[in-house]
Amino acid sequence: MAYQLPQLKRILIWLATSKEVTNFTYGLDSNNRLQLASIISLITQVDTNKVLSYFEEIEQDIDLRELIKTSICQGNSLDRNSSDANVQYGRRIGWYAFVRILKPKVVIETGIDKGLGSCVICSALLRNQAEGHSGQYYGTDINPDAGFLFTSPYDQVGKILYGDSIESLQLLSESIDLFINDSDHSADYEMEEYKVIQEKLSLKSVILGDNSHETDKLQRFAMNTNRKFIFFKEKPKKHWYPGGGIGIAWS
Ligand SMILES: C[S@@+](CC[C@H](N)C(=O)[O-])C[C@H]1O[C@@H](n2cnc3c(N)ncnc32)[C@H](O)[C@@H]1O
């Protein structure tokens, strides 16, 4: 009961206060947030405090927070009606820190949904650009209505490729520095994405998998392509959802 009662309370609060029925948003438990910073520090060789400062940078980004609130409150599409205006970014703060640290020239995110990850990533690219490191974001989504949050200024450093992700990736001619898989969550489709990008990955590329709490595909891809792999398990704060995670593959 001690384990389950808090969960029951969270479910009741979610039922009464949230519009989200999928792709839930929440913050990370404070220990979990620190663990994510340590993992990123180990991989990138950047001090943990520096990683934490990037987390704070995006968490305290008032412009993005305002854009999300305005877009969701003023909209009337089905997507907007299943989105909460007061979002937190969960594991996406890890995506943000990777973009800030690695200064990638090309970042891909497959599967954008409302565009929350897109805005978080492009916010990092805009700050990189202001510091003299420009980079380009490509998001993919099969849903032509996806990405209602992805507006100015974030669309200045990125674009959405609508259609099947595999097909969009096949057509991409640029070298990929950071790849985030978050589209069709079936194991076979996930692996297919890694296979399509394999020859397009730059030497020091990093691959982040949003399916590694469910499948071993990114780990297997890492083993087959001589990359290292680690999995960060997300622990949501004050939410009943058990959490996803970030599979990380790097050379
Ligand atoms: C979990 S959501 C993505 C969440 C997003 N990355 C974020 O940060 O909030 C998955 C998305 O993948 C898209 N999707 C599903 N199958 C796809 C496919 N074959 N090609 C491209 N996108 C696909 C869905 O339309 C959905 O918007």
CATH topology description: Rossmann fold
CATH superfamily: Vaccinia Virus protein VP39
Mean pLDDT: 96
Structural class: alpha/beta
Question: Could you list the spans in which at least 5 consecutive residues all have pLDDT below 50?
Answer: none
Roughly how many Å is the radius of gyration? Answer: 17 Å
Strand order of the largest sheet: 4-3-2-5-6-9-7
What's the number of helices? 10
User: How many beta-strand segments?
Assistant: 9
CATH class: Alpha Beta
Oligomer: single chain
Outline, from the CA principal axes? globular
Ligands, deduplicated:
S-adenosylmethionine
How would a crystallographer describe the biggest sheet?
7 strands, mixed
Domain count: the total is 1
Q: Note the gap between the termini.
A: 44 Å
Strand content: 15-25%
Order of helices and strands: HEHHHHHEHEEHEHEHEEE
**Considering DSSP H and I runs of 4 or more, what fraction of the residues is helical?**
40-55%
The name of the CATH architecture is: 3-Layer(aba) Sandwich
Please tell me about this protein's structure.
The protein is α/β, with parallel strands linked by helices and 251 residues long. The protein has a single domain, classed as 3-Layer(aba) Sandwich (Rossmann fold), CATH 3.40.50.150. It is built from ten helices and nine strands. The strands form two sheets. The chain has a seven-stranded mixed β-sheet with strand order 4-3-2-5-6-9-7, sandwiched between helices. Strands 1-8 form a two-stranded antiparallel ribbon. β2, α7 and β3 form a beta-alpha-beta unit. α2 packs across α3 and α6 runs parallel beside α7. 41% of the residues are buried. The model has no long low-confidence stretch (mean pLDDT 96). S-adenosylmethionine (SAM) binds next to α7 and β3. The site of S-adenosylmethionine has 18 residues, from α7 and β3.
